Amino acid sequence: MTIETENQKSVKGRIVAAAWQLFYEKGYNGTTVDDIIDLSGTSKGSFYYYFNTKDELLNTLSMILDDNYEILKEKMDPDMNSYDKLLYLNYEAHSMIEEKINIDLLASLYSTQLVAQGHRSLLDQNRTYYKLISSVIDEGQKRGEILDEVSVSDLVRYYSMCERALVSDWCLNKGEYSLREYSKKCMPVMLEHFKR
Question: Rounded to two decimals, what is the model's pTM?
Fold first, then answer.
């Protein structure tokens, strides 16, 4: 990767991070492109280089989530049981969603992903999320901690489906309960058959 490419990624990343922070604090409609430019410390030219409209930023949630997974990957104890790693990642990710992602925006994104034609960013298997979950499950199978009669890809699909189900239900219930605490209670039950 060249320095220019890293710098471009940094600029785009700053715009995305600023946008989602503002969406949470001020709401989507209360956030202007100028607000995003000011908070990100970029320029209009940079903004419009990456995004034609503010609406396009809604599809960047997967970038925000993946940035969080990169942090969690570094913080995670490598000696932790792989099954416990999956529960840890779920709890921490859902904590971040509950604290930093506006529930109405999340619900809107999920609904647009349901009807989108072509690429669905949340299902992109090249995301950090899918690679991390795959590596934890693969490691768990090799250590004898996770069921190995089922393929890694099938277990990843099931895990991600469980996570989406918890988030979707939380959105449907308008955040009437804590996503992190509900996930902490439900995810071990949903993943029980993963255990070796």
Answer: 0.81
